[in-house]
Amino acid sequence: ESTTVRYLYDMSEGDASMRTILGGKGANLAEMKRLGIPVPDGFTVSTAACVATMGNQGEWPASLWDDTLEALARLEERTGRTLGGATRPLLLSVRSGAVHSMPGMMDTILNLGIGDETVESLGAESENPRFAWDSYRRFLQMYGDVVEGVPPHVYEDELTSLKKRRGVEQDTDLTTDDLKELVATFKEVSRRELGRDLPSDPREQLRGAIDAVFKSWDTPRARVYRKANAIPDDLGTAVNVMQMVFGNRGETSATGVCFTRNPSTGGKELYGEFLVNAQGEDVVAGIRTPRELSEMEEVLPQAYGELIRTMHELEAHYKDMQDIEFTVEEGTLYLLQTRSGKRTAAAALKVARDMVEEGVLTREEALRRVEPAQLDQLLHPAIDPDHDRTPLTRGLPASPGAAVGAVVFDADTAAERGQTEPVVLVRYETTPDDIHGVIVAKGVLTAHGGMTSHAAVVARGMGRPCVAGAQGIRINTAEKTLTIGARVFGEGDVITLDGTTGDVYGEALELVPPQVNEDFGAIVGWADEIRRLGVRANADTGEDAAKARELGAEGIGLCRTEHMFMAADRLPAVREMILAGSDEERAEALEKILPMQQEDFEGIFSAMKGLPVTVRLLDPPLHEFLPDLVEQSLLVQRLDLTGGDADELSEARTLLSQVKRLHEQNPMLGTRGCRLAMLYPEIPEMQTRAIVRAALAVKEREGETATVEIMIPLVAYARELQVQRQIVEQTVADELEAAGEQMEVHVGTMIELPRAAIVADQIAEHADFFSFGTNDLTQTGIGISRDDAEGGFLSAYVSDEVIPHNPFESIDKDGVGGLVQIGAERGRSAKPGLKLGVCGEHGGDPASIELFDALGLDYVSCSPFRVPIARFAAARSVL
Ligand code: PEP
Ligand code: MG
After folding, report:
1. Dihedral sign, CA of 296, 302, 303, 304?
2. Among 674, 771, 838, 839, which is best to mutate for testing ligand 1, by the most ligand atoms less than 8 A from CB?
């Protein structure tokens, strides 16, 4: 096989392995043809042609048009029909098909090749002039919109106005004469909009249609979708040119969409919709509300039987749930597409697990079928079942999960308001152009469209709760009102959606954390058998620790102790300590804090039942314990001006001068972490006492010895760790001696400054373990403030693609990842087998976990709710 890329392939030349060049749709069509499944004949313009065109200012590669005409000639010969022919005309569909499916994001042109002559012969041939004229008006509408850029409402308005004048509701109620009139009107409004006629030469139309599909790769909505789904921008789309089959050829014709399993629940049951006498886009775009697939058995029994057989065949062949588009033309079934079906997280897990049980997939294959993000979705909340509540109305349960948010009526507003508050996007129906709003919204509610409408498919794929086709709602976009029965909601009013049941509520309901089900447990259990990385949790309280254990954490990788100082009942003592005039005063203040800390540690050790717990000693800057400088200045001023209580004033002044003394311009780079402990060794000493006493108390009470690891934060110099280790070890020894007990305590450090990574070999001399603090390592390694970056230039960098993603969410592999690599290598060079972990937010991010696994770290630590995702992602990275 030669490696030269071809621009064009006949359908019979391809197969499923050629998805990069033929796109998903083209490759699967070719595969179906190979399997002997009825597919309309055609050819595919390859992704290479699109890429070449994009790379050449929209200019087609030299040979492409000739290739197209030749492929067309072959297709004409095979079908015995002619494009634009006065007898036996060939009509074409021109459909996009990228490598990764992007449902509804790119363009399609149907019924191409119909014109003033062919419409007559098509009508005569099928003895159904109505169908021919209906196809004609559809073509004008689509071509005008997609290829020529006429605003679609221009045609929709004419269609609506004609239906109104005729007093009919459905498109199907229009007569042949009505449709003829509509064709004339459509030509006229197109001429008015464009200042010229639409082209009537079908070859010119074909060229325009292929070109429009190329261009649709680069529309804003397609870009947004790719970005949201991490699809590269340079893949291009293929274009599938196929003989039309007509689902609108009368009462024995139909079109539909079906899934081989239920994409909401994963249940092995029939799932799909169809419409008699309609074309595909009617179902997909949600223009008419379709009928349930099971009803097709009665209406079109033979085609139905064949469809069911084909569904089974395709699922078995691809070993995955399929999403299928079909058309029945005068009783004969054709498949127009099959692809791996987008599904909810719950469905993904159920299907994966069922297919392992059915012997279709191995466990490893099943794990590969589930995305880490899908597990994440399952950990989303549902409506509190114990709450009394009455829905205002009910629509279709299009995508499960509950959403509470302020009503907004358009995608732009959703995208904007959704940045700062939860919003629910309410639309008559959604179109692919709404994608940027759907991404940001907590949920989507539509008045129109079925379970396979665009809104439903997209929402399910993204894990957004969605209630679709809620017929009981009225939306007035001009006035921004949503009316449900007697209630009227304006923009900003809060509603709740239940995408699992389809219920809509007129108030904010309480949500409860999700219940992780058996499928979830099984899949994550398989992940545990495979993964190499350990998974711990970041937890600061006994409650969090218990949750972490429940979700499978193998220890605590980071117990931040600052909240133990910040709680309201402790702050006065902590201030006393900081502001103490002498060592004695400081010791006194610390004595008050110790028992409170001890109690906290007892809770955590008790919950962890002997599993390792890494306690990090105090980290935050001093000013966080003191009043704000500006506020304190204002207080002094106010007391001064009002001539208030003299004592109060003098006290406020003293505090102000102390605040000033401790004030730092850059507290994040100031007296934090071990720097504080170097100045006040009493603090790490007190904390160590509390830790040891807590461990001993739990041992005495519960018989379980805690595995304690004490971690020193913000170390830059080996000497810092040496000094701190000394303090900790001495204190441990003192406490154990006083208690007459024995216990092993490990001492390690965080690596969260670039200097620490670079001199990790020196630091390792004094460390039993390292834990990479990738939050601070990102802040100091890239030089972006953790606290100020969100929303500012960093958002612009991400949207302008200066950088691929927010480095605080997913690790900057080359830069910060490089520092981790250096730290790990140098640390282990000095101390082979040094235990290495990660406890920054990245410890719960699948892409980062993949890197940490590759770097050979021992464990990641993340927030309790991300533990299952981390367990799963750790398995995925070794698959
Ligand atoms: C870190 O810096 O990555 C870390 C875990 O510590 P903190 O977030 O508490 O600064
Ligand atoms: Mg840190």
Report:
1. positive
2. 839
